[in-house]
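Here is the promised in-class demo. Please do not try to memorize the tokens; focus on the logic of going from shape to residues.
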């Protein structure tokens, strides 16, 4: 799997082994990474390895008490322990593991070669057919428990601080999303540990050509730069700038592993990790749209919701200083047309093509409109667009939250090209300490 150095060895099952032939399994960490990351003196749970958070966190300041956190990660990726790490209870995790293990006995058998995450997602979807939740009056905890979520994950999803985010999707969606975040974190962990080792070595012995630079007037708070193991550099800053002349601040919150994969070694930005899976507010089947918001508190809520569900991962906010002139070619959509578009995109409209009166909005390079606060399942049970009332996502001050949607390939290309060197990221775990800025090597 991408982001992981494969290392095969016999899998010593932590469950009762019911098959004679051992399955070859992929270790979560290579021996070298595990040795450097291991938390000294920490008790190891059976099937898990204890590592320090500071061994992999790109945001670690070296001074925060969070750096001393001990994280238990599964020794083997395809294991019951991996599913428990992702928030499923032990009983369900064991059942899924045994089912997955059986499929791996016969090449060509349906399910052979599939990761355990595929089997887990199949289980969650099957249980969701029996009982799911998407409306406030539904029994969310009962539905989540039926899908195998443990008490910690149930509490995280049902945390009242994230009610407005939670209600935009169903219970099954959030369990599946948590599995995705957990799998991406584990599959990329070995690479992150090795990168952190290289980063610390370069910080200890910096290249003579890499010297700290003073702050530049239109880049507030910039303290200096350092070389990472590749030509990509980051600059430590004391605070994220609230405004930059000629640029507009837009934000996106999510999981560090996923969002930071958008930044390449040469400082360029790739779009794919920034895109949202359909259906979304403004399109029913496009998986290429990039949704950003002008509201920092909304992005922060999404980031903290990730971190609440998968505590070893870091929720992060990306801040894009977008050239204001790039945003001039936009349309705004409100009122009945906004309701029609959301209903077509996320409801049971019966039409696969954009209604004619909405074409000008669907074809606009950038579309700006409110964020709706109801799940696809809820919208799908509405009779007509006029029923879409009163459930907008709210900002901290009680206003309706809005989103900027980059819809065309041309505008998405301009976004990543013109924001190169103008993106900051801030970890919710270290939010009080500092933020980092990605800098192309020829501008650092």
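The designed amino acids, position by position:
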């Amino acid at each position: 799997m991408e982001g992981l150095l494969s290392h095969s060895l016999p899998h010593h099952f932590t469950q009762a082994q019911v098959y004679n032939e051992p399955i070859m399994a992929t270790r979560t960490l290579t021996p070298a990474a595990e040795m450097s990351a291991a938390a000294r003196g920490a008790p190891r749970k059976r099937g898990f390895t204890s590592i320090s958070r500071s061994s992999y966190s790109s945001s670690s300041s070296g001074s925060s008490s969070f750096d001393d956190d001990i994280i238990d990660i599964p020794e083997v990726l395809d294991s019951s322990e991996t599913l428990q790490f992702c928030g499923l209870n032990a009983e369900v995790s064991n059942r899924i593991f045994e089912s997955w293990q059986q499929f791996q006995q016969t090449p060509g058998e349906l399910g052979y070669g599939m990761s355990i995450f595929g089997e887990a997602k199949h289980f969650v979807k099957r249980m969701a057919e029996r009982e799911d939740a998407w409306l406030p009056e539904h029994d969310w905890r009962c539905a989540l428990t039926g899908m195998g979520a443990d008490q910690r994950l149930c509490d995280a999803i049902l945390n009242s601080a994230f009610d407005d985010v939670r209600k935009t999707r169903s219970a099954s969606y959030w369990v599946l999303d948590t599995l995705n975040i957990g799998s991406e974190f584990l599959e990329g962990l070995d690479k992150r540990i090795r990168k952190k080792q290289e980063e610390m070595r370069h910080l200890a012995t910096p290249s003579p050509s890499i010297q700290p630079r003073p702050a530049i007037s239109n880049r507030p708070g910039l303290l200096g730069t350092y070389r990472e193991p590749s030509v990509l550099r980051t600059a430590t800053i004391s605070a994220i700038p609230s405004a930059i002349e000629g640029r507009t601040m837009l934000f996106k919150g999510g999981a560090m592993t996923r969002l930071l994969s958008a930044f390449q070694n040469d400082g360029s930005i790739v779009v794919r990790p920034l895109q949202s899976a359909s259906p979304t507010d403004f399109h029913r089947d496009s998986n290429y749209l990039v949704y950003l918001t002008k509201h920092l508190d909304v992005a922060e809520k999404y980031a903290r919701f990730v971190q609440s569900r998968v505590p070893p991962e870091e929720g992060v906010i990306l801040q894009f200083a977008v050239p204001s002139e790039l945003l001039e070619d936009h349309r705004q959509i409100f009122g009945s047309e906004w309701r029609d578009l959301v209903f077509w995109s996320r409801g049971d409209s019966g039409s696969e093509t954009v209604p004619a009166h909405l074409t000008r909005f669907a074809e606009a390079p950038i579309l700006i409109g409110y964020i709706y606060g109801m799940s696809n399942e809820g919208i799908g049970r509405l009779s007509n667009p006029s029923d879409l009332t009163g459930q907008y996502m709210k900002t901290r001050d009680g206003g309706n939250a809005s989103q900027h949607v980059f819809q065309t390939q041309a505008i998405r290309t301009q976004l990543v090209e013109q924001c190169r060197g103008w993106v900051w990221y801030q970890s919710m775990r270290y939010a009080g300490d500092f933020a980092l800025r990605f800098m192309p090597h020829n501008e650092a």
